[in-house]
Each structure stands twice: as C-alpha cells, then as structure tokens.
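REQUEST ID: PR-0412
SUBMITTED BY: lab tech R.K.
PRIORITY: routine
TASK: structure prediction, single protein chain
INPUT:
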Amino acid sequence: MAACISSSTTANRFLLRQILRDEWGFDGFVVSDWDSIRQLQIHGLTEDDRESACVAANAGVDMEMAGDAYSHHLQGLVEEGAVSEDLIDTAVLRILRIKFELGLFENPYTDPGQLPDVGGDQILAAARKSALQGCVLLKNNDATLPLAEKALASLAIIGPLADAPYEQLGTWIFDGDESLSVTPLQAIRELVGDDVELRYVRAMENSRSRVNDEFDVAVEAASASDAVLLFLGEESILSGEAHSRANIDLPGDQVELVRRIRAAGKPVVAIILAGRPLTLSNVVDEVDAILYAWHPGTLGGPAIADLLFGREVPSGKLPVTFPRLVGQIPIYYSQKNGGKPPSHDNVVHIDEIDTFAPQTSLGMSAFHLDTCFTPLFPFGHGLSYTRFEYHNLRVSDAEIPLGATITISTELTNSGDREAEEVAQLYTRDLVGSITRPVKELKGFQRVRLQPGETTTVSFTLHTDDLSFSDRYGRRIVEPGLFHAWIDGTSDTEHRVEFRIVATP
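STATUS: complete
OUTPUT:
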C-alpha cells in the first residue's frame, strides 16, 4: 500500500512518523505528491532542492513523485550523514515489499492485449449508469420534463455543449477517448428518429464566446419549434486543479443567449454541463427546467436523452451547495451557527431599507442585504418525475449510553405514478459540544427504488462513535448530550426527532 501526501505534509515528521506510522500503524510506503518536495523551497520552508530532499526524507517520505531532488541529492546527503543509510534501507524495503506483494517480480510485464477494453460493453454500461445517477434535476416547473415525444413535432437544440464530445469527458481525463463519446445531440437524434424534427444551432463557438452572430438563427429555431433544449455550462478546461474562476456565472454570452431564447415564448429546458456549481440566479427564472449534468463522461449523451424523454427518472442529488451569488461563498450545509443567525423573520432586503434608517434598525443578524441568506439549491437537493413522501420519523431509543447503537427510521412512499429511485439522507446535529458543532451533518444515505404507491421503511443504525468529533487537541471524542436527527431527500428539511447520549456509570 502506498500513501500519497500533499505538499503541506511533505516535511511534517509529526504527521508522517508519529501519527501515520506509530499511531495508525501504516506499514506501506509514502510517496510525495507531484513535485511537492521541490515545492518546499517555493513555500519558503527550505533554501534549495538539496535541503528539501533532506527535510522530506527525514520526515518520512519514501518515494518522490515527478521530481529529481532525491535522485540528485540523496546520495550526497547519506555520504555527509545528513540522512542515515538505515533510513534509505527502510524506505527501499517498504517499496520492494509492496512490489513483491503485487507480484511484480514474478510478472513484471503486462500484455496490453489482456487489459480490459475501455470501450467494452461492461465499462460503457457503468459509464452510462454513472451519468444517469449523477445528473441532478434542479428545477421542473409545471412538469416540463419529461418531454412527451408524441406531443412534439419539432425540437430546437441550442448551445455550445450539445455536441462537444471532448468537453463532456471533463477535466483530468488524459487518455480519455473522445471517439467513444456519444453527445446529447447524437443520442437525441437516435432516440426520436424521424418522429421529431430537430433544429440544431450551436450559437456559440465555445462556452466562453462573446460573439453572438448566430443568436438570431437560434431564436428563429426556437420560435419554429415546440420546445427548446439549451445546452449550457463550461468547457472542461475551465475547471479542475488550478483552474479557478472568480466569477462563476455562466461564462461568455450564455446569459444573453438564454434571455433571447426565452423571448421566443417556448418551453425552455437548460441542460448544464460543468465541473463546478455555477451561480444561476441570472437564468433560473428564464427557463422552465434545469438538468445539471456536470461533465457526464463518455455516455453522458444517452443518459441525458433518457432523462429528458422519461426513459429514466432523475435520482441524482447535489453533493455541494449552490450559492445564489458568488458573494455568499463559503456557503455549505454543515456550517456552524453564528451568535445571531438569520431567519426568515429577521432579514431585511436592501430595497426595503428606509432612507436615513438608524444603524440598529436592521437588527444585528448576520446576512447579506442584497440576497437571501439561503442558497439557490441546497446540499442534497434533487427532483424526480415522481413524488416521494417521508413520514413517521422515529428513533429506536430516546437515550443510549456511550458505546451503544441507535436506529433512526422513517417510512418512504412513492406517491407518484412512476417507478423511481430516491436517495434518502440521514442528518444529525450535536446541540452542545466542547467545540461548537455544525447545524447538520450527513451521516448516511441509501438509494431506494420504489414502485408507484409502494411504501418501505428506511433505517439507519448509528454507533455513538459515528457521532464523534476531533477535540481541541486533535483527539476523537464522543460527548454525552442531546442530538437532533433528520431523514429526508434533501438537507433542507425541518421535521426531526431527538435522542440523547448519556454517560455510562
């Protein structure tokens, strides 16, 4: 087993030796992150690569990744006594032992012809399933989705990411084969065949383009069609490591494209491909439905088509909170309460403030005057084509001692008319702690498939250790006290139960 460590850990003897080796009993070898030994100098911790190699080796880094500080300097450091020969022997032994365990000495070469075909049926099926379960239906006014094929004579497909096989693969793909990609445009064409007339307009060269010469053509296509699919978002190069954006609105002239298309007066569905949450406040009211597809990978196109036309039912949930505006960041579900938290009863919008209002007239709660204190879409949010109802939330015990378990259950009903999957989520809150605790913490989730009208019991069992946290000394502890628990299809839920952990005699 190998452990890859970041640059912040590369020189940390305490973490690598005392914690990782002595306390956790790790017996594999430690490899640095990409070029992190050389970066010790850049961080200002060492003077040159030689000193970086010395510090990292003595800290406990057995192997250097993608750098030459070790190859250039370790021998000299050993000869000078700055790094012990025993340390090198130990590092080599750890690396060789793992290679022996992996059978690399008995079979050092791999026949490429025996490797699984990346385009094989099993792998492609997994890619399609991953895309299906990852897409999140954020908005669906008036049941705009799924699209009814029989009710559609024509459909406009507009946007720079409708037919972008490379971009849908996402970031850090390296050898990803775009020739295997099936785009949404291709998949929709195959799905509807000759039954629906498709009008495709790319409209923008790429997601960043501010050239809108094709916008009029796109509007004409939208006006002549029964509905519009807008494929928006950001190219893969715009996200990933070291690819940050200060403004996370839809890039380029996409917002203007949305507004122009909206003016055509047809139902508009936005399908967004992106590697991060985007701020969508400037378009959320301009479209009837939003399907957030992220960068869905090789078979993202068929997955999106299946979801749009109801062959499959959306079941994805947000793994992150979507802010209304970038100024809300950091915003996350597991935040801690401030001393004066906002509520719907104590916030004031900037447009409601009287001229020359006294400083204290707004109260002292912490919120943004120019937007809501809530996110646009909360962590765990995700709609379906059916309705799921949670009821009869309960706990197995009102009190449990330290070291015991508790079961938290609810009834889950599919009250709609479609077979579908729901991701039930368990959240807890430790109300009082020696270190302040988050207002909610995700403790578990289950993917449940139900037939229309079917009800099942969803249960989560927690050991008191599952409610532990790190104290001010870095120790994992569990403290007696009162806890709240929720089970729902989103973190934005209020119905809860209580239980208490009590100290053992």
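NOTES: Residues 85-101 form the longest helix (17 residues).
REVIEWED BY: pending
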